[in-house]
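[step 3/7] inverse_fold.run input=structure_tokens len=829
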């Protein structure tokens, strides 16, 4: 208890004397930056999940070809969750003597639970958001249906035995994106109208869905409950089982937010590292006095450790409070940009904030602070004596360990954290080497040139360790800011380019071989550029090596569904657009006639397929078998035709084949689809514009989040700059007193400081620019799979901006030392 009281007294004394303020402020800003990013990204990630859930119109969906037991809805009601029902099936709409194949969706009055419905009263009218689906006796249809049958709102159409009023044009149903393979335009009717149509019988092929939505914890509780009670034929769908295009986009959005948060951690580490040097110097005097009064080294260390712990907890709690306030105000300002009020954050960012403060303080402050117990008592009389220097290896291991732990914790992605850490270590190594070379090169030059030039160089040589520390701290901070700049510009632009404005928004399937040439001529005549016409075959996976495949062999829901259904296979001479080989080799001319397969990496991981395995398929009763020659990574969000499994031409080209293609149809040309179907009746059109719209919205909101995370990190970067300048303030104060006493003018001192800090800024900016570009390239190619083009502006801003900013900051910090009289500064000590 006496040790704790002594630690509290010293802590109070240090705070009153101002010795801890810079370190505390650095920790507060570091923690507030990380927690503000954490709180905000936590809420935005939840909002992005809700945005993605709009594609399902719910948080969870129970799917079956038979009516779903009432017990599932009862359990959801008991947990306070909202529910809705849908029933969908293909059918035909009749108007006069014309018919049109449609996808009928009958919905209950509470549909949708997530997302929205939008309609147009007339084709040229503005969209209107509606809160309820159509009432009984009414039907809403997509514009494609209107064009195909030349309909107008108010017309009467027949669906089975029921005559319905075509009330509105359905312009948006956010859940359309989850139904990729629609055989025609969607029509929306009331669920209570289904019995009147006479279309649904016990033998009908109908999709029943129970939609569930609510707060996160009850939804997760319901999901756990439902998983253990699903009867055969009932499937539980959630975000992770959504379409790969949507999953890829959401995963990339989360990685961007994690990467932005990593940059905040990097700035935090640099800030605390620069603040530590001054803290340890100040504590040397206190330790020497305690040694003179008989305190043991263990007592000094225990008091120091308790002070650091209390300091870390206090600064972390204050930083968490500041971070919460900052993100709360920002979220209030931007809630409309994210589709309404953002969800409440989870407690996780609070734990991250506490961990960041304590780990950062321990990693960067503890190694040098532990040497304070060995400060000789003679330091009271001789100021040149201090604590024994800390082992460079110990300092490096602690700092790197703290940074690695923080990055891995914050990112939640080992690959992403690894590349950022590797870039950081490379930058630190280059900066340390540059600091050593700078000292060696400047020593012969310090006696040349004018007085101010010599004085500026002398400032860099007065304390080589301090110069190297400042250069490293500045370099790390600049690396973080440039890396975030690359994220905001190059990487986000590359993300948006994955779905260009004229990306394919319609697929054509069931193209017969004899219609391929005519289809190509149709596209040429209508000036539409298809994404290529590819063969497609349906087959069921039966064996992996010598082992038969069955759904019960897998625990994963997705794996079970994949094994139960048929695969879309294709054959190709060259790899298709939107894919790249990550393992093995694509077949060349020498083995094109061999029986080989190329498998998509995601399905290979899900089903446990490895390079060299032999896969067996049942293709319309004909067994086929081939070896896996390579694994492909597919960009499903490119909306180019692609396949889980592709074979060599010799393996599949002699089997009965249909063809598939995709193309971009500009708005206003929907009538072309009706013309296409009339000319090629066997062709099925699949509209994917709904899911593309959802993906683009997720991209836009993810980009907005990164933009505003940049502001938090910028504030941390400014403090890092301040901490770097203040690290050498004591040396510059003493030097200023001596030089002014010897007659040096104020202008000379300011210009010498400018030369010193501009040199540091230019060198740190140059090395940080190189490392930021290299790190950005590795992150873009290895983590996100983007093509990265380095920008010249990164180097220009990094070098000139750093030199200017650090030079100006150094001059501003030196100015007060030139205003106060030397005697007054000595008295203030």
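[step 3/7] decode complete -> sequence:
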């Amino acid at each position: 208890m006496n040790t704790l009281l002594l630690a509290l007294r010293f802590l109070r004394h240090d705070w009153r004397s101002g010795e801890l303020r810079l370190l505390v402020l650095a920790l507060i800003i570091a923690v507030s930056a990380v927690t503000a990013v954490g709180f905000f990204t936590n809420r935005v990630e939840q909002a992005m999940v809700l945005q993605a859930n709009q594609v399902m119109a719910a948080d969870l969906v129970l799917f079956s070809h038979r009516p779903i037991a009432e017990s599932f809805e009862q359990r959801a009601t008991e947990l306070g969750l909202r529910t809705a029902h849908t029933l969908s099936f293909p059918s035909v709409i009749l108007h006069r003597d014309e018919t049109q194949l449609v996808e009928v969706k009958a919905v209950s009055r509470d549909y949708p639970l997530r997302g929205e419905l939008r309609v147009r009263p007339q084709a040229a009218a503005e969209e209107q958001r509606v809160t309820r689906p159509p009432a009984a006796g009414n039907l809403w249809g997509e514009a494609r249906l209107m064009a195909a049958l030349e309909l107008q709102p108010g017309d009467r159409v027949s669906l089975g035995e029921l005559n319905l009023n075509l009330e509105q044009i359905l312009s948006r149903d956010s859940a359309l994106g989850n139904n990729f393979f629609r055989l025609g335009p969607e029509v929306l009717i009331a669920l209570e109208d289904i019995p009147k149509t006479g279309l649904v019988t016990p033998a009908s092929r109908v999709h029943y869905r129970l939609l569930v939505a609510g707060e996160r914890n009850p939804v997760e509780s319901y999901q756990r409950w439902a998983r253990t009670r699903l009867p055969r034929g009932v499937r539980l769908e959630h975000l992770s089982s959504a379409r790969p295009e949507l999953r890829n986009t959401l995963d990339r959005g989360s990685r961007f937010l994690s990467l932005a948060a990593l940059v905040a951690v990097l700035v935090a580490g640099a800030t605390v590292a620069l603040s530590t040097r001054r803290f340890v110097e100040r504590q040397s005097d206190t330790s020497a006095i305690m040694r003179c009064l008989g305190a043991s080294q263990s007592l000094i260390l225990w008091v120091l450790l308790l002070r650091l712990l209390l300091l870390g907890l206090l600064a972390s709690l204050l930083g968490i409070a500041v971070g919460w306030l900052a993100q709360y105000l920002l979220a209030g300002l931007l809630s409309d940009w994210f589709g309404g009020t953002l969800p409440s954050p989870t407690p996780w960012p609070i734990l991250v904030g506490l961990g960041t403060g304590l780990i950062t303080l321990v990693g960067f402050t503890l190694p040098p602070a532990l040497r304070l117990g060995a400060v000789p008592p003679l330091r009271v009389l001789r100021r040149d004596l201090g604590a024994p220097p800390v082992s460079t290896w110990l300092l490096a291991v602690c700092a790197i360990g703290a940074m690695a732990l923080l990055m891995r914790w914050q990112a939640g992605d080992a690959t992403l954290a690894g590349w950022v850490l590797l870039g950081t270590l490379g930058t630190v190594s280059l900066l340390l080497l540059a600091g050593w070379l700078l000292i060696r090169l400047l020593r012969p030059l310090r006696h040349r040139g004018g007085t101010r030039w010599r004085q500026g160089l002398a400032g860099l040589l007065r304390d080589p360790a301090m110069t190297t520390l400042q250069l490293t701290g500045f370099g790390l901070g600049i690396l973080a800011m440039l890396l975030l700049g690359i994220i905001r510009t190059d990487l986000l632009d590359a993300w948006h380019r994955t779905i260009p404005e004229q990306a394919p928004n319609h697929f054509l399937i069931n193209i017969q071989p004899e219609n391929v040439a005519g289809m190509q001529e149709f596209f040429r005549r209508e000036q539409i550029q298809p994404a290529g016409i590819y063969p497609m075959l349906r087959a069921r996976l039966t064996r992996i090596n010598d082992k038969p495949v069955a759904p019960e062999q897998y625990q994963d829901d997705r794996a079970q569904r994949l094994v139960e259904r048929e695969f879309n296979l294709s054959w190709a001479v060259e790899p298709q657009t939107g894919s790249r080989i990550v393992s093995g080799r694509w077949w060349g001319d020498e083995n094109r006639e061999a029986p080989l397969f190329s498998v998509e990496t995601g399905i290979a991981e899900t089903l446990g397929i490895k390079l060299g395995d032999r896969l067996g398929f049942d293709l319309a009763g004909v067994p086929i078998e081939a070896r896996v020659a390579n694994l492909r990574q597919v960009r499903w969000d490119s909306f180019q035709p692609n396949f889980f499994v592709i074979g060599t031409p010799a393996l599949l080209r002699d089997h009965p084949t249909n063809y598939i293609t995709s193309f971009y149809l500009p708005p206003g040309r929907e009538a072309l689809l009706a013309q296409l179907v009339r000319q090629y009746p066997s062709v099925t059109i699949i509209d994917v514009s709904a899911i593309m719209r959802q993906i683009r919205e997720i991209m836009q909101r993810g980009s907005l989040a990164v933009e505003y995370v940049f502001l938090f990190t910028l504030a941390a970067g400014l403090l890092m700059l301040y901490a770097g300048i203040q690290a050498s303030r004591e040396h510059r104060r003493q030097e200023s007193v001596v030089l002014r006493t010897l007659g040096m003018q104020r202008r000379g001192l300011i210009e010498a400081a400018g030369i010193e800090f501009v040199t540091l800024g230019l060198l740190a900016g140059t090395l940080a620019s190189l490392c930021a570009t290299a790190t950005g390239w590795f992150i873009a190619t290895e983590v996100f799979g983007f093509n990265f083009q380095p920008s010249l502006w990164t180097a220009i801003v990094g070098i000139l901006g750093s030199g200017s900013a650090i030079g100006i900051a150094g001059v501003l910090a030196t100015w007060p030392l030139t205003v106060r009289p030397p005697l007054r500064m000595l008295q203030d000590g």
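[step 4/7] annotate
Confidence is low (pLDDT under 50) at residues 177-181.
The first strand starts at residue 60 and ends at 64.
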